[in-house]
Design goal:
alpha+beta, three-stranded antiparallel sheet, globular
């Protein structure tokens, strides 16, 4: 477990590595049979004690191989925390602010670019997607002439969610398959609409495949390039990137990502995977620290004009049984979550094979991002990373 504020890395003695490796073996065995690991001893009390204990619980009680957190205070100072092991086979140390697959946090980046195009007068939020992608969005109960850009970004389009129909493909024998965005869209459009546009809410990655196609059609450039130029480079996110075609690895220092295919099954290393199936809905790689910088810059008005940011922060309540954390509302690629200490945290979150992340930033400059290196299936009854974001912002 590490608590660091921009300190240089220290070489770890071999004896400590041997002890970590032994711990890793025990951790892997416990995870395989569903036994919770004990948290490590608490550190001395201090400003970050609650967060420090929280990342320990994510490894011990919530049974994730590793946990990483970055917490930014009102003064802009960021503290980083880690617990567990980066690799259950070798017991390698978790890199401070290591790279993880950011999953659906990508949606906030995609929505930001769409809203920049709105501010430039190139896209209208309440125009039908048909205007930009004619004759493309058609299916049973599905008509692009009746679905607006706003409804795509806010998940009120009623479009089927393509990832519900290919889960075993993307984590099984086809995990190294490259998917074209149109292939993903075809999977969705072969299904019946969930509801009429604007009449309900349901999370659908299909909405953001269309948002990505919209960006490419309007700009005439790849969505990866547009997100990189308009967002990542603009605010200096040095450890965030869109993987290139065929790039299945994570480039910089990172913990390994794991999944459990069935209850009680063994941990499987799924770090290397072709994330083209996530595309504009979930392909980015980032770090907890970079995610803090992004959401702080976004809600601080550094990426969007006032009118566009206000539209992004206009949220809708979720229906019962939506499967989301309590108190969450959805805007345009951005969520708001009620904090236990009052006020709201703005962010998103992401779950991909091997990684689960939660993020939040406040209007007064606080921010927190938490990542764990196993799918939520290890402890599906809770969302402990989201709870830790609340702790970091409130305590």
């Amino acid at each position: 477990m590490t608590d660091r504020t921009d300190r240089p890395r220290v070489r770890v003695p071999s004896s400590r590595l041997r002890r970590a490796a032994a711990t890793a073996v025990v951790a892997a065995a416990a995870l395989a049979v569903g036994v919770a690991l004990p948290a490590s001893a608490a550190q001395p009390h201090g400003p970050g004690d609650a967060v420090r204990q929280g990342v320990q619980r994510l490894v011990g009680e919530d049974r994730s191989p590793a946990a990483l957190a970055a917490v930014t205070g009102r003064d802009g100072r960021t503290r980083n925390y880690t617990a567990g092991v980066a690799d259950v086979r070798t017991g390698a140390k978790v890199p401070v602010d290591g790279q993880v697959r950011a999953g659906s946090n990508t949606k906030a980046f995609t929505a930001t670019v769409v809203l920049q195009l709105v501010g430039e007068g190139k896209v209208e939020l309440d125009a039908p997607i048909e205007r930009y992608l004619p004759n493309l969005v058609r299916g049973e109960g599905i008509d692009g002439r009746e679905i607006t850009v706003r409804q795509l970004l806010q998940h009120t389009s009623g479009l089927p969610n393509y990832t519900e129909y290919i889960p075993h493909d993307i984590t099984g024998e086809n995990r190294h398959t490259y998917y074209q965005p149109r292939t993903l869209l075809d999977v969705a459009l072969a299904r019946k609409a969930q509801f009429a546009p604007g009449t309900n809410w349901a999370y659908s990655n299909t909405n953001y495949v269309l948002a990505g196609l919209l960006i490419e059609k309007v700009t005439g450039r790849p969505v990866a390039e547009q997100i990189t130029h308009r967002v990542i480079d603009r605010i200096g996110l040095r450890h965030t990137y869109w993987p290139g075609v065929g790039d299945e690895r994570i480039r910089e220092a990172h913990p390994e990502g794991y999944q459990v295919s069935e209850p009680g099954g063994p941990l499987e290393n799924i770090t290397e995977i072709d994330m083209s199936w996530g595309w504009a809905a979930g392909q980015l790689i980032s770090t907890p620290g970079d995610l803090n910088r992004f959401f702080s810059a976004l809600i601080g008005g550094k990426l969007l004009g006032k009118a566009e940011l206000a539209e992004m922060r206009t949220t809708v309540a979720l229906p019962a049984g939506a499967g989301m954390p309590t108190g969450i509302r959805f805007g345009l690629g951005l969520t708001s979550t009620e904090l236990s200490c009052g006020g709201l945290a703005w962010g998103h979150g992401g779950t991909t094979p091997g990684f689960h992340t939660r993020t939040g930033a406040t209007d007064d400059g606080r921010a927190a991002a938490v990542a764990v290196t196993a799918n939520r299936g290890l402890a599906p009854e809770s969302d402990a990373p989201q709870d830790l974001v609340d702790t970091a912002l409130c305590k």
